[in-house]
Design a protein that fits this description.
alpha/beta; Rossmann fold; 2 domains; 5-stranded parallel β-sheet; two-stranded antiparallel ribbon; 11 helices; 50% helix; 10% strand
């Protein structure tokens, strides 16, 4: 059972004989978060005046981490993509159902992560004119390593089915004519699992430009590497864009240990060239976004 004393932040937690200290501290932090959420709900929060925030992008790009950072704020609810109130099989439910979820939400902001619905970004933003959104991207090399470990050859199956019988999986929704032709002229059978993951990174992130999201002021790029390297600075900038308050607790567990964690994957040169070109384009858009944010801050200070 439990002993009569414990040291909460010391080298050991003697109160819990059979529970790992790390898990105990996680439980403590979770209880702290829930207490703040409860305080916000009792206080009244933003019931009836909730702003939705959508997180788009390719899987394994830091979207879950970003949602969790938002969720540590007492004024924000992070609705996970497996939450049955708004999602089914990781896809966003119909508009009326989502409207009801937003209407009943007691917080000022509600975070959605409809990664399978990235092709609907414009539709969702048009329906909720007050909404903001972020498009998350990550360097393709680290993303390939992470995606191969999680999804294996599934991307290759998606591409193969499309080329052989025209089957359109959610990953290929709103595929441009140019990208469709690219897939049809590519020998999918020769590709490795690394190639498949890299090509999927390319196809999914092309949506950012194919849908014209780069020209939409209500869509902001989230660069994984910049965020984990400077979490406080980046999160402050993001919260200013969204319109919520920043607290240090939002990023207290963010670290950069995942950067270059594994050996750079071997990718076919033609596919790597595609990815490299798109990454440079995304990086340039991100730098432009940062410059514009800096200019706005300077104007506000004058």
């Amino acid at each position: 059972m439990f002993s009569s004393h414990f040291q909460l932040d010391g080298e050991r937690v003697s109160t819990l004989d059979k529970i790992n200290r790390k898990n105990f501290l996680k439980l403590r932090d979770r209880s702290y978060d829930l207490a703040h959420k409860l305080w916000w709900r009792v206080r009244g929060g933003g019931a009836g005046n909730t702003m939705p925030v959508f997180i788009f992008g390719a899987q394994r790009s830091g979207t879950t981490m970003l949602g969790e950072c938002f969720g540590r704020s007492p004024e924000i609810m992070n609705l996970g993509e497996s939450d049955p109130r708004a999602f089914e099989s990781y896809s966003l439910l119909d508009i009326k159902t989502v409207e009801k979820v937003i209407e009943d939400n007691p917080y000022n902001f509600l975070i959605f992560k409809p990664l399978k619905d990235g092709h609907r970004a414009n539709e969702l933003l048009e329906h909720w004119p007050e909404a903001k959104s972020l498009w998350a991207y990550r360097d393709y090399a680290d993303r390939v390593n992470s995606a191969v470990e999680r999804f294996g050859r599934h991307p290759l199956d998606v591409f193969s089915n499309y080329v052989s019988n025209g089957s359109i999986a959610w990953q290929l929704e709103s595929l441009s004519a140019e990208d469709s032709q690219l897939l049809k002229t590519m020998n999918i059978e020769r590709l490795s699992v690394n190639d498949g993951a890299a090509l999927m990174w390319y196809i999914r992130n092309r949506l950012f430009y194919n849908l014209g999201l780069d020209q939409n002021s209500r869509v902001r790029l989230f660069q994984y590497e910049a965020f984990v390297s400077n979490p406080s600075i980046e999160m402050k900038s993001i919260t200013e864009y969204v319109g919520c308050h920043f607290t240090g607790k939002m990023v207290e567990n963010v670290h950069s240990k995942s950067l270059g964690k594994r050996k750079r994957p071997e990718i076919a040169s033609d596919i790597e060239n595609l990815c490299e070109g798109l990454r440079e384009q995304l990086d340039e858009s991100y730098r432009k976004q940062c410059a514009e944010s800096t200019n706005e801050e300077e104007k506000d200070q004058v």
